[in-house]
Amino acid sequence: MSGLVENFKTVLQRIQEATPANQKPARLIAISKTKPVENIIELYKAGQRDFGENYVDELETKANDNVILTECPEIRWHLVGHLQSNKVNRVLTRVPNLNCIQTIDSIELANRINNTLKQQSKTLNILLQVNTSQEAQKSGISKEDFLALYEHVKTNCTQLNCQGLMTIGLLDNVNAADDSDFHVLIQCRKELCEKFNLSTDDVELSMGMSHDYERAIQVGSTIVRVGSLIFGARLQH
C-alpha cells in the first residue's frame, strides 16, 4: 500500500472513530489543490469519489484530464474556494462531473449560477458559505444575513439544490480548545431548521479540515475537507 493510500485509510478510520454513536460518518472531500492528477487517480482507485479544488482554473484542467475522464467516471468534483462571478460560466460549462459549489455567499452569485444552469437545463448542489469568524478578508455571508440568502435560493433559484452550510473557520486557528466557528455554524443550522421547519438531518454541515476535522465531526459536521493529511504538505500555489 502506498503512503498516499495509507494516509487516506488512516483518515477514513479516524472519521469513523470520531463519529458519535447516533450519527452516520461524515463524508470526506479530498482536497487535491496543487496535487498531481496521478494522486487523484490513485485515491479514486482506493475508493475515494469526492475531490475538492479551490481554484476554477485548476479544477477545469483536472476535470478535463483524459486519464481522469477515462479511469474515474464516477468522480464528484467540489469547488471549495471563492467563486468570482466572472468565472461562473466557465465552472458550469467546462467542468465535467461538477457535483457541488460549497461557497455560495451572495444573492448575486446564486442568481448568476441559477441563470446559467437554466440555460443548460441543469441543476447543481450548493452549500451556503457562512463567515463564522467574521474576518473581513474571508469570503462568506454573515450569520445575520444567511437566512435571507437561503430563502432567496429556495424561492427563486429553481436550478440550485441547497444541501446545507459551510464554513472555513479561523484562518490561523490551531487552538485545540477553540471550536467557536463550529458552534456558530451549528447555531445557524438550528435557526435555519426552526425558520423553515426542516430536520437537522436534512441540512449538511461542511466544516473541519486537516487540523481539526475530528473535533468538527464530534460536534456534528457531516462533510470534512481534508488535504494535507492525505496528500502531504502543499506546494505553494
UniProtKB/TrEMBL annotation:
<dbReference type="InterPro" id="IPR011078">
    <property type="entry name" value="PyrdxlP_homeostasis"/>
</dbReference>
<comment type="similarity">
    <text>Belongs to the pyridoxal phosphate-binding protein YggS/PROSC family.</text>
</comment>
<dbReference type="InterPro" id="IPR001608">
    <property type="entry name" value="Ala_racemase_N"/>
</dbReference>
<dbReference type="Pfam" id="PF01168">
    <property type="entry name" value="Ala_racemase_N"/>
</dbReference>
<dbReference type="InterPro" id="IPR029066">
    <property type="entry name" value="PLP-binding_barrel"/>
</dbReference>
<keyword id="KW-0663">Pyridoxal phosphate</keyword>
<feature type="domain" description="Alanine racemase N-terminal">
    <location>
        <begin position="12"/>
        <end position="234"/>
    </location>
</feature>
<comment type="function">
    <text>Pyridoxal 5'-phosphate (PLP)-binding protein, which may be involved in intracellular homeostatic regulation of pyridoxal 5'-phosphate (PLP), the active form of vitamin B6.</text>
</comment>
<feature type="modified residue" description="N6-(pyridoxal phosphate)lysine">
    <location>
        <position position="33"/>
    </location>
</feature>
<dbReference type="GO" id="GO:0030170">
    <property type="term" value="F:pyridoxal phosphate binding"/>
</dbReference>
<protein>
    <recommendedName>
        <fullName>Pyridoxal phosphate homeostasis protein</fullName>
    </recommendedName>
</protein>
